[in-house]
């Protein structure tokens, strides 16, 4: 099928129709009856999905794409580049290679790179694409990753694993023990072939649950892209027993924000009623659970133990959104009628008994505008509303 799809006229057709509605294309007559039209349509759909996520592949001629689901599940180039900066040495083996985006970026840092993929058809596609991308030095193996490790029988500086989070029995899963391969069960086996493991897990995996499942965790990287958590990366080092570094990272177009701390932590939050400025942590920071560390490291105060909002007198740089507080009032019928009823505002709730939808409906507040309203609870357990101007 690869050779058929590489015919110049078919490649031109794929490129010319990238971005067009698949439903419209599917109704048209196949201009290449000797080739399965579904395969051509899949190439168009997968290439369209790659434009923003995988620009290196999108901009290279004669790339063959797997199913659109594989494209949706693969790492983005932004997160793959970040992962590549976490490793060093001369060799790495990716036991769950997939479309090969991570491996491509590993190869920019490390000389000897091995790509393993159980799906033989996908492995052939990846090998072809690596040749197109001038990465023919990457070794590609198809088959069971455990058997491949045994067959190669060489230690590498790193093993990378992105376990499949789909189970035939349980459907979509997120605990590492339910994924394939079962990393917690195979840790000792992997340590026979490398002292360093880099593991990617579901962004919804609870950190405490992951730490309990694994051992020898050296660091955890919570990676978000434009404030959406995409990956949790676990660095495991053989025999490591010290503190665990937690690193929160947000990747934007040309920026990288980060915040880090160690577990266990002895930090304690300080508390205050709202002051001049309000701070809302970004998603990666929220995922880390390091709420006391935020208060300690920035020298800012929490509004309430469960609110995860912070305040200060002086304006500070912060890993998250920053607002200037214009007005604070108790949540009451009288105050809402005076300040917000029938208005237009952006609403956020933190530790508040009503949902955003309930508040909008009850007080006839339209979405949008330049006013930002936070409905929350103070340290003395009063329900309040903060009217703010956004700074960042």
UniProtKB/TrEMBL annotation:
Ranges for domain PG-1098 ferredoxin-like: 277-318
Pfam family, any one: Thump_like
InterPro entries associated with the record: PG_1098_Fer, SAM-dependent_MTases_sf, Thump-like
Domain THUMP-like: 320-390
Superkingdom of origin organism: Bacteria
Protein name: THUMP-like domain-containing protein
Organism expressing this protein natively: Flavobacterium orientale
């Amino acid at each position: 099928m690869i050779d058929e799809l590489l015919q110049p006229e078919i490649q031109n057709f794929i490129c010319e129709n990238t971005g067009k509605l698949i439903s419209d294309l599917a109704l048209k007559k196949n201009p290449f009856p000797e080739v399965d039209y579904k395969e051509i349509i899949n190439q168009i759909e997968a290439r369209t999905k790659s434009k923003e996520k995988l620009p290196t592949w999108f901009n290279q001629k004669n790339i063959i794409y797997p199913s659109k689901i594989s494209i949706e599940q693969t790492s983005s180039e932004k997160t793959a580049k970040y992962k590549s900066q976490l490793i060093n040495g001369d060799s790495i083996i990716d036991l769950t290679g997939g479309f090969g985006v991570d491996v491509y970026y590993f190869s920019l840092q490390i000389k000897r790179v091995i790509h393993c993929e159980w799906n033989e058809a996908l492995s052939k596609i990846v090998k072809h694409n690596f040749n197109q991308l001038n990465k023919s030095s990457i070794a590609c193996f198809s088959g069971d990753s455990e058997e491949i490790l045994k067959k190669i029988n060489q230690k590498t500086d790193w093993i990378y694993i992105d376990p499949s989070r789909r189970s035939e029995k349980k459907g979509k899963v997120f605990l590492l023990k339910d994924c394939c391969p079962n990393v917690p069960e195979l840790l000792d086996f992997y340590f026979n072939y490398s002292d360093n493991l880099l593991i990617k897990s579901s962004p919804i995996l609870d950190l405490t649950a992951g730490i309990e499942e694994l051992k020898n965790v050296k660091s955890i990287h919570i990676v978000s892209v434009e404030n959406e958590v995409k990956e949790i990366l676990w660095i495991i080092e053989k025999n490591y027993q010290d503190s665990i570094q937690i690193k929160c990272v947000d990747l934007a177009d040309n920026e990288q924000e980060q915040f880090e701390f160690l577990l266990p932590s002895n930090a304690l939050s300080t508390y205050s009623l709202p002051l001049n400025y309000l701070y809302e942590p970004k998603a990666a920071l929220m995922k880390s659970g390091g709420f006391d560390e935020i208060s300690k490291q920035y020298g800012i105060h929490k509004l309430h133990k469960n609110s995860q909002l912070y305040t200060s007198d002086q304006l500070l740089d912060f890993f998250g959104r920053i607002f200037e507080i214009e007005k604070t009032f108790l949540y009451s019928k009288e105050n809402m009628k005076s300040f917000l009823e029938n208005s237009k505002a952006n609403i956020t709730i933190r530790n508040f008994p009503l949902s955003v939808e309930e508040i909008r409906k009850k007080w006839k507040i339209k979405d949008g505008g330049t006013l930002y309203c936070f409905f929350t609870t103070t340290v003395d357990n009063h329900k309040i509303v903060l009217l703010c101007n956004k700074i960042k």
